Structures are given as C-alpha cells and as structure tokens.
Amino acid sequence: MNTNTALPVDITEIVFTNRNKNYGAYVLRRLYPKHLTIAAWSAIIFFSLAVSSPLWLSYILPKKQGAERKIKILDYTQLSQPPSIDKNQPPPPVVAPPPLKSTIKFLPPVVKPDAQVHDEYIPTQTELKNVDPGTKTEEGDKNGVDYSLLDVQTKVVEPKKEEVFTYAEEMPSFPGGEDKLLQYFATHIVYPEIAKRAGVEGRLYISFVVRSTGEITDISVIKGLGAGLDEEAVRVVKSMPKWKPGKQNGKPVSVKVSIPMVFKLQQ
User: Fold this and answer.
1) Distance (Å, rounded) from C-alpha 93 to C-alpha 154?
2) Do the Cβ atoms of 194 and 250 come closer than 8 Å?
3) Mean pLDDT over residues 36-54, rounded?
4) Domain ranges in the chain?
5) What is the reported pTM?
6) 101 Cβ contact partners less than 8 Å away, ≥ 6 residues apart
7) How far apart are CA 88 and CA 86, in angstroms?
8) pLDDT tens figures, 91-144
9) Are 248 and 173 in contact (CB under 8 A)?
10) Does residue 227 come out as left (phi exceeding 0), alpha (psi in the -120 to 50 range) or beta?
C-alpha cells in the first residue's frame, strides 16, 4: 500500500516551517485572504449603494403635488416716444454770450525759432490788477463777466519736430563735393599741441544732422581718438558752411550724416 499522500502546498506553512507560529505574523498571513475578500466586497457594496441611492430615493420619497415652476421676471423701463419733429417749428433762440470785462493780451510763453520772435509788450502787475489777461487787448463792460470764468482754453503751440532721416533719396552734400570737404578739413584743422606731444594720430568718426535748411546740428563723436582731437573735430564741423540738404520725394529733409576725419602728423 502506498503511504504517500498528496497534501496541498501552502506558502504560509512553507515560510513558517520550523518557526514559532504563535507569533503574530503567522496569524496575519493566514487571515490576509479573508480580510482582502471582506474589504473588496465592502467597497463594491458601498459603491453600488452610493450610485443607486438617488434612484431609490426617487421611488421612496413622495412627489410634491402641484409644484409650480418659478419664473424670474425682469423689470424694465418703458421709454416714452420721442417728440415729433415739426418742420415749421422755429429753432430755439440763440442766447448771446455775456459781455466781458476789459482784457489785455497776455499769453503763455511759446518756444519759437529766433527768426519768428518779435518784441511784444508785456503788461505790468499793476495793469493786470485792473483788467483780465486774454488772447488780445480789447475794451469791455465794467459789469461784464471775467474772462477766466469762460470755457476758453489757450492752446500752447509747440514747434513741430522735424523728422530726421538716416537715408534719403538724395543725400546731403558739402558745397563743391567731397574734394572740397577734404580741402576744408586740411585748411581748418589745427592739430592740438597735446596730441602732437603724445604722437596721437588716426581716424575718428563724427556724426551730425544736416537740416532741411542746410544747417549743421546735433554733432557727436561716434569713435574718437582723445588728446583734444575729438574737440577739434567738433569745432571744425561747427564752422562748416551750410550743406546742400538731402531730399526725399523732391522735398528738402533733415538727414543724419556720419563721416570719417583723419588726423595725421606731418613727418
């Protein structure tokens, strides 16, 4: 007779072979499948109840009879009809402005070119005590309204800034051309004594704006040499005669020009 009997293999029994089974770990391992099954079924039942509870409550709770739906009514203002236009109706009378007191011309100062500046009479403080300042001098009514009480604004006219082009269809040029410009530099440049002693020479770059009138403004040294050469270059450029202005669409415009200036000591 075969005495070998096949027994089911339990991983917990294998792990705790020849060990103390009274320890808590053995009990926990033995009860783990049971606890897992209970937790799974509890979660399934709880989820099913949570999902189906609104459906069950709708069958259990009685419905309210005659429940009326509330409708929100917005209040609005009824506008009246506009009046009819009668073509034969005369226009409203024009109300004449009230008489003014005497005024004396006293305007805010305006920045203008020298050619547009004219000598004007400036009233004294004593004269301004008796009359109101205004845009022009005129006689008024002693019982009139002060000029300052009217809604009159004196606009200060600022001179329009001329646009400066970097490139133009026709660039500015020195009178007589580039050769004359080189001759002008050669005859007008005075080599600074400090630069002579230090032996400083080389090429510097200077920029300036040739206005639509041919005048030279906004002179600045882009790349200088120092030792007084930068200041001498600015002085010579300032002393240049008017250039032939550049043109854009056939009209004179302001153009920014950059030119090199060579300083070389004579041997």
Assistant:
1) 28
2) no
3) 88
4) 10-60, 103-149, 164-263
5) 0.41
6) 131, 132, 140, 141, 142, 144, 145, 146, 147
7) 5
8) 777 776 666 666 666 666 666 676 666 666 666 666 666 666 666 666 666 666
9) no
10) left
Residues 6+ apart with CB under 8 A from 158: 110, 111
Contacts of 136 (CB under 8 A, 6+ apart): 103, 105
- E-state strands within the chain: 103-105, 132-134, 164-165, 202-210, 216-223, 246-248, 251-263
Q: How many CA atoms lie within 13 A of 121 on its CB side?
A: 10
- 210: tokens are 């040739």
With the CA atoms of 5, 8, 11 and 15 taken in that order, what torsion angle do they form, in degrees rounded to the nearest 10? Answer: -30
Distance CA 54, CA 52 (A): 6
User: Cα–chain-centroid distance for residue 61?
Assistant: 65
Report the alpha-carbon distance of residue 208 to residue 237 in Å, rounded: 8
**Average pLDDT rounded to a whole number, residues 253-264:** 89
Find, among 161, 227, 159, the residue nearest to 192 by Cα.
Answer: 227
- Of the chain, the end-to-end C-alpha distance in Å amounts to 134
What distance lies between CA 41 and its chain's CA centroid? Answer: 66
CA distance 248 to 173: 14
Other CB atoms closer than 10 Å to residue 51's CB: what's the count? 9
Kindly give the residue spans of alpha helices, DSSP state H, lying in 61-142. 125-130
Fold held by 164-263: 3.30.1150
